[in-house]
From TrEMBL:
InterPro entries: RepSA. This is Plasmid replication initiator protein. It comes from the Bacteria.
Length: 426
């Protein structure tokens, strides 16, 4: 991105101003900075850096590093996957056999077949499309997607209460003895609904830096609690003008797999255990994608806009349902800002406060390392790293404005590509 502005150091006692940097001193009068867009389809280089930062954030919470003690790897930790319920049968990819083989070849009330004997490839445009779009509950689909972040919040509360019950403690006593640390990443399915993936770890009350949880809770009890909490949580949506409220729940396919160093790191088989590096790599990969596989950009104005962009009929109908829902009152008015994410309003990745390091700490450490390479060890405790500060009695003041995107001249773009290629090679 192209910026214009300056960075100055101000003497707080005298008011004297010293200009440390100004874009006016550049040959073309612009300061070029990274766009920091996480979407791989928008900026591959920034997306690659974001993916690496996400991998470190997730991995440090599973195996330690960057100041997080390695003892976290010995604590009960499971990889949880929560899915959306079914709102109608859709085409899918099966490991063995055709999509939906049915000997009786049934049809729905609209005369459309409820079976499919085709073996779909992963890139088949028909994957994720409903067998009958009139039978598919698009309103329920959008309502569930809109309320998915609240379902996540209620799940964490229910998990804490269930674990306290299993330990035979009141919730206040449980909090003084145990802390649930987690990270949450969402992944869009082909049918346009999100999966929620969450590494969940049991710590002592002080988090990763303190002693482990003193309660006799095993990984088996943690995973049983995950299944019970996911099944118990529900949310009643606000009643609509033309329909009653929906009772929204998680889907039946709630999965928990033990995270262990003893699991096969490179094994592609699905088992009861998974390696920490597999979890971090899997989740970091999906963070650079959102709905780009559906042909949607970061901003979508309407269902007509989505159709013109080449979105599938299923995606267009989802956005049509979201448009209708946005006119149902103040509770759903903001869904109009989320057409590009098909009604999902949450962040792609969130975490509890003491799960691991933060994106901000990782990025500050990288800036400091690049500015003063010898001053920061790559494995330093980045939670203690402070950004560059002004000397005592002085204050740094930066003021930059956005001017545009992209390079103004072809040779500048070519040099940028050359520098990026050399950086990757070295």
């Amino acid at each position: 991105m192209r910026l214009q502005g300056s960075k100055q150091m101000v003497n707080t006692a005298t008011g004297e101003v010293q200009t440390l940097y100004s874009s006016a001193g550049e040959l073309d009068g612009h300061t070029y900075v990274r766009c920091n867009n996480r979407r791989a389809s928008v900026c591959p280089t920034c997306s690659r850096e974001y993916k690496g930062d996400a991998w470190h954030l997730l991995m440090c919470g599973l195996a330690g590093g960057k100041g997080v003690p390695e003892s976290v790897a010995d604590r009960p930790c499971t990889f949880v996957t929560l899915t959306a319920p079914s709102f109608g049968p859709v085409h899918g990819v099966r490991d063995k056999g055709p999509c939906r083989a049915r000997r009786d070849s049934p049809v729905c009330a609209h005369g459309r077949p409820q079976w499919c004997r085709k073996r779909h490839a992963l890139d088949d445009r028909q994957v994720g499309q409903p067998l009958c779009w009139e039978c598919y509950d698009y309103l329920g689909h959008v309502l569930w997607q809109w309320h998915a972040p609240e379902l996540c919040r209620r799940f964490t509360i229910a998990l804490q209460r269930d674990l306290a019950k299993r330990a035979g403690l009141k919730i206040t006593q449980f909090r003084r003895a145990c802390r649930i640390s987690y990270s949450k990443v969402v992944e869009f399915q082909a049918r346009g609904l999100v999966h929620v993936h969450a590494p969940i770890r049991l710590d002592g009350p002080a988090g990763p830096d303190g002693p482990a949880c003193s309660l006799p809770l095993t990984i088996a009890e943690l995973e049983a609690s995950v299944a019970a909490s996911a099944a118990a949580v529900y949310l009643d949506s606000t009643p609509l003008r033309d329909s009653a409220s929906y009772r929204l729940r998680w889907g039946r396919q709630a999965d928990a797999r033990t995270i262990s160093d003893g699991a096969g790191r490179d094994s592609g088989r699905r088992g009861s255990r998974v390696h920490p590096e597999q979890v971090a790599a899997y989740l970091a990969k999906y963070l650079t994608k959102t709905t780009e596989d559906f042909g949607l950009p970061s901003t979508v104005g309407s269902a007509v806009h989505a159709r013109l962009l080449g979105a599938t009929p299923h995606v267009v109908r989802i956005i049509q349902a979201a448009e209708a829902l946005s006119r149902e009152g103040d509770d759903y008015a903001r869904i109009a800002d989320r057409y590009s994410t098909l009604g999902y309003r949450g962040h792609p990745i969130t975490k509890s406060r003491r799960y691991s390091v933060t994106f901000g700490q990782i990025r500050r450490a990288r800036r400091l390392f690049r500015a003063r390479t010898a001053a920061l060890d790559p494995d330093a405790d980045i939670r203690e790293v402070l950004d560059e500060t002004a000397p005592e009695g002085f204050e740094l003041v930066s003021s930059f404005v956005y001017v545009g995107r992209g390079y103004l001249q072809l040779d500048q773009a070519a040099e940028a590509v050359r520098s990026a290629a050399m950086a990757r090679a070295n």
